[in-house]
Structure prediction request, 531 residues.
Amino acid sequence: METATINNNFKSEEYFINMGPQHPATHGVLRLLLTIDGEIIKKVEPDLGYIHRSIEKMCERDSYQQIVHLTDRMDYLSSHINNEAVCLAVENALEIEVPERVKVIRTIIDELTRISSHTLWWGVMGMDVGALTSYFYGFRDRELINDIFEETCGARLTMNYNIPGGLMQDIHPNFIKRVKEFIAHFKTKLPEYDKLLTGNIIFQKRTKGVGVLSKEDAIAYGASGPVARGSGYSCDVRKYHPYSALDKVTFNEALHTEGDSYARYLVRIQEMWESISIIEQLIDNIPEGDFKVATKAVIKLPKGEYYQKVETARGELGVYIISTGGKNPHRMKFRSPGLSNLSLLNHITVGGKIGDLVATMATIDIVVPDIDR
Amino acid sequence: MTNQELQELITTWFSGPESVHLEFTEEGSQFLNLSIDPEYLHELMSWLKTNNKTSFDYLFCLTGVDWGKELGVVYHLESTKHRHILVVKVQTSDRENPVFDSVQDIWPTANFHEREVFDLFGIKFKGHPNLKRLFLSEDWEGFPLRKDYVDEVNMVVK
Prediction:
């Protein structure tokens, strides 16, 4: 350890400090044990479990229909996508082909969910580095999406709109009109985001070159989603393992190679544009048909193992079901994007300052219930 | 590589595939599954990562499983170069002191995931630098995701 001596009276030494579990920048109940020397970070050790509910254990006693409802309590900002992951796994296991209408509606709501999650992230990201205005901008636009969800799904956050076999009910008659209105509105607002933060010199100085993650490390640490794509690792599940209506649309995978906080920021901004494009391609082409296919009241999956990947707003969510043929899974594992993304935090923040840790954590975009499950 | 090619290549790595209990199956799964004697796990994993033809550099899922009698770990591997997927499985019937080799030196992401498995299943990982509970408190008794775990206070039994 380096010891700087000033007048022989003062010397620097390492000490511990708690960040969280109630720190506003940890976005939930995450506790970080920091070892610091002055303002320089020597070690970051996350202490998890403050919101652990053992969803995986609960799944072992629940029916597959019930399990769907537990999953939107993981990454609550991607609740619709989480629900879809379980439904897809169950449908694949039962070899159910859902109607085209269901696939298109699911993908539209997926992308709305992604925009909703990214606008919230964008607002909070600005706030974390000291720009409060972005917070209000982000929440203003997110409200409109929540209104659409409320009308069609009946809930604003934990939507529970997916069921194995299709959707809970058909879309609201206003749905298409409202989505189009939102897209038209949001296309004028997204450039404001760039004006406010992206081109802002203070913001750039806080994020450029901060928390640099190399492509090799992104892969080795199991990173996924915008965190991995900010480091140039092409990993979009929507591209490599398309599901629902994603094979019908064209979009670009947002990729940046710098690997710093600013690159991760740019990836998310670009993803919002891509999501808009996906919605525009689908919204006028929702096929007619049923909104679900009938499934048995008691779903039993054939003996075997099923794995379904989806791309949530945070990265790759994996649903791994081991079935022994009964009405409950023998083992249900959720591969959460957040836990892997968090595991690289120590690696990319050591040597930096505490203020940079806040900026880096904001661009990793963790949701604690997704990590704890 | 196709599953068939992967299977043939991996088999050639071991002089006696039967002696290390190397078994392949695609039954009841969309991926190629491989199970091996835990003693040879680390050796196999290093090869899977470093061999140019396999180069499984992305460990995307690490799962603990209680099979009733045995405890096991399932590793889902993907190659970012070749984009093929392989599932590696190990299991042990020693429920008192289950130990597998840690693979966190091969894939750093395993560090947290092995701690999670240790926390919830009580499976130990030899060579892990920081093997302690990830979610539950240090003084928690028992391992909740085991099938024989009983907790009358915190668990609702239907």
